[in-house]
Amino acid sequence: MTNPHGRIHNFSAGPATLPLPVLEQAQAELLNWRGAGMGVLEMSHRSASFETIIGEAEADLRALYGIPEEYAVLFLQGGATLQFAMVPMNLRATGSADYVVTGAWSKGAIKEAEKLGATRVAFSAEGEKFSRLPAQSELQLDPKAAYLYFCSNETIHGVEFGAEPAPPEGVPLVCDSSSDFVSRPLAIRKYALIYAGAQKNAGPAGVTIVILRKDLLARTPPRLPLMLDYKVQAENKSLYNTPPCYSIYIVGLVFKWLRGLGGLEAMAQRNAAKARLVYDVIDGSGGFYRGFVRPDSRSKMNLTFALPDENLDRQFVKEATANGLDGLKGHRVVGGIRASLYNALPPESAGVLADFMREFQRKNG
Ligand code: PMP
User: How many CB atoms lie within 10 A of CB 30?
Assistant: First the structure.
């Protein structure tokens, strides 16, 4: 609240808060990008300037994750939701795909894939209200699966994988990383495909980033609609048609901001420290705050919890909002409170939330 722009603490699950230096740079470059005489909103996607912008965004992402040459990086439209369909359309020419169902988003993904072909549930925590992750030994894996799919962070339920599930030998691992993208380092070579809608950790809405191993492109069946075909998108470097230019530009600025802060290892530590501030209050509250998720499965991005009753939930959100803490109401499917602590949320904001929670309990506990 002491922010010079009058900005408040934004705990929105997405679209979400963006790094202030990124917004300030975008503001400064709005009318004239690097002397081009025009802003990014106005320039051709075929211009040398935009080629630089998309090229730098890709290079910075490659540097952050250490993405090897044998992977393509795509900037697509249609949101993460379109990837629910593109993944099976492109990768499951025949056969069946395995899904690990750990929350609303992996459930949504398998529902979409079911419309298009065969799927199997390798694990589902739905019977336990999506309150935990599976152990590797609980996964019922098909050794012939077209791929094994999981969602690394369930934005609504608040469970996040620490280590990725291990697929059977030769089965490609596919991940929806929309809400923990670039929040920590990943061993990219364990993955065949990772995708993320940008509007949580990586930038504004409108662009979805796909990292995929190029050998998978051989699986893409003929006669897919152009925009749904990874091969077309890869061959045209995401420029088959007009891409979401401005979103790609902002995502690129976010990647540079991350590199400037020390990259993903530094960001992972910062995110862990932020989450700890809030989980410590929950765990020290004597049951006043109840986490929805088993501690070993907790998300560092979306922290879900509830107060002793729904009236207190409502009062908490109301008082928080009045104090400049916005976006804390839980998703309607889960209820309670959800605090999203994405990369760009300043550590001070997590501290302000922790203090607010302690004070709220003192008054109402
Ligand atoms: N997957 C996850 C994990 C999400 O959090 C979301 C959006 N909240 C989606 C998929 C769907 O994303 P989009 O709105 O970009 O289609």
Answer: 13
pLDDT digits (tens, 9 = 90+) for 3-24: 779 999 999 999 999 999 999 9
In this structure, are strands 208-213 and 71-76 parallel, antiparallel, or unpaired?
antiparallel
CATH topology of domain 264-364: Aspartate Aminotransferase, domain 1 (3.90.1150)
d(CA 162, CA 49): 39
Cα–Cα dist 196/184, whole Å: 14
Q: Report the chain's C-alpha Rg in angstroms.
A: 21
| pLDDT at residue 271 is higher than 60 | yes
**Is residue 79 in contact with ligand 1, taking CB distance under 6 Å?**
yes
Amino acid at 202: A
Question: Hey, whose CA ends up nearest to atom 15 of ligand 1?
Answer: 79
Ligand 1 in reach of 112 Cβ (< 6 A): no
Helix (H) or strand (E) holding 356: helix 347-364
Sheet containing 96-101: give its strands across.
71-76, 208-213, 193-197, 173-176, 148-151, 96-101, 118-124
* H or E stretch at 211: strand 208-213
User: What residue owns the CA closest to ligand 1's atom 12?
Assistant: 80
Q: Indicate the pTM of the whole model.
A: 0.98
Active site residue 176: yes
* 23-260 CATH pick, 3.40.640.10, 1.10.10.410, 1.10.10.60, 3.30.300.30: 3.40.640.10
| Closest CA to ligand 1's atom 9 | 80
Locate the domains of the chain by residue range.
23-260, 264-364
Residue 355 annotated to the active site: no
